[in-house]
Specification:
This protein has 14 helices and 11 strands.
């Protein structure tokens, strides 16, 4: 059985970490082959008796990618599993991932869905509904709900499992970007090493969401700004039509000025795409469990599209991101 190190960057020890360790203890995996490295900003103790080896390494106030690199340097495990501090694994998470590695030496990394847990609050679940909806998640819904197995070239580090020798070859994360550190390392894997990243629905974790609307939209702003900037820095995996669609949607909404003021006879035709969009919004919304959740999901998808579209453009025109300016 392969040795595995689970690396979890965190600002400080919190309830989510304790929950994650509880579920790691329940993994269907030989605990003698398993260690967990938790990386808080400052020295803290974690109480509890676990059958796996637990390391707590203080790092100071640095980005998650830098924390992960410290974790990589402090382990000799064959496989490194990265999760966020607000994530906990399903019982077969590692078994499913390791079986994929054993089938093909060209597979460098494995990822899987990060599902919204049932114990999340109502407003966190609304954020989950938005991300996993047809309009909200689009072609990336597989990141939030289990879908068919596939090859990917860019995958979030909240559930990303990588061979240690691959990490050594690419020099770890080694980037100032956050979020987006996962985009950088995935690109190194598929472009520089010519190796594969596999998404499998059984490599499943549960990911606590941000509260809607404030926490959710702050996260969307961060994602959009970085992706817009990455179009210039890492076009191989970021210069894609899917990332531009919310901005095109905003331009379409702005374009209504033409039929309203200049071509009144075209207003009906101009409105057809918007009517289709509203129908799809309604369909996504009614999948929610109650009326309030449906209403907030519909509003949230629209707000997510507008917010993402605006900040994607902002990232596109930035000369440098905040974390680069701080270097």
């Amino acid at each position: 059985m392969k040795s595995v190190s689970i690396i979890i960057p965190v600002k400080k020890i919190n309830d989510y970490i304790i929950e994650s360790l509880f579920y790691i203890e329940k993994l269907n995996y030989d605990k003698h082959c398993l260690e967990v490295i938790v990386l808080p900003d400052f020295r803290e103790e974690i109480n509890g008796n676990y059958s796996f080896k637990l390391k707590v390494i203080p790092t100071g106030h640095i980005h998650p990618g830098d924390k992960r690199d410290i974790g990589i340097k402090n382990t000799d495990a064959e496989i490194i599993a990265f999760i966020d501090d607000d994530v906990f694994p399903s019982s077969n998470w590692l078994v499913a991932a390791i079986s994929i590695f054993e089938k093909d030496d060209k597979i460098a990394a494995v990822g899987g869905p990060a599902v919204t847990p049932e114990n999340d609050s109502f407003l966190k679940k609304v954020s989950g509904y938005i991300y996993s909806s047809f309009l909200g998640g689009g072609g990336y819904r597989y990141r939030y709900i289990p879908q068919s197995r596939r090859l990917v070239d860019d995958y979030p580090s909240c559930n990303l499992i990588i061979r240690k020798d691959v990490l050594d070859k690419v020099g770890g994360f080694n980037t100032e970007f956050w979020p987006g550190e996962d985009t950088v390392i995935c690109l190194k894997i598929v472009k520089d090493l010519k190796m594969k990243i596999v998404y499998d629905p059984e490599v499943l974790v549960y990911h606590h969401r941000r509260d809607f609307p404030i926490g959710h939209l702050k996260q969307v702003i961060n994602y959009a700004m970085h992706r817009g900037y990455f179009v210039k820095r890492f076009p191989e995996t970021s210069f894609r039509l899917s990332y531009f669609i919310p901005t095109f949607f905003i331009l379409y909404l702005i374009s209504f000025v033409f039929p309203i003021f200049f071509f009144e006879n075209l207003i009906f035709i101009w409105t057809i795409p918007l009517l289709v969009y509203m129908i799809l919004l309604f369909i996504d919304g009614i999948k929610s469990k109650n009326f309030l959740a449906a209403l907030l999901t519909i509003a949230g998808i629209f707000m997510t599209h507008v917010t993402y579209g605006i900040y994607f453009v902002y990232g596109l025109i930035l000369k440098k991101l905040r974390e680069e300016n701080s270097k």
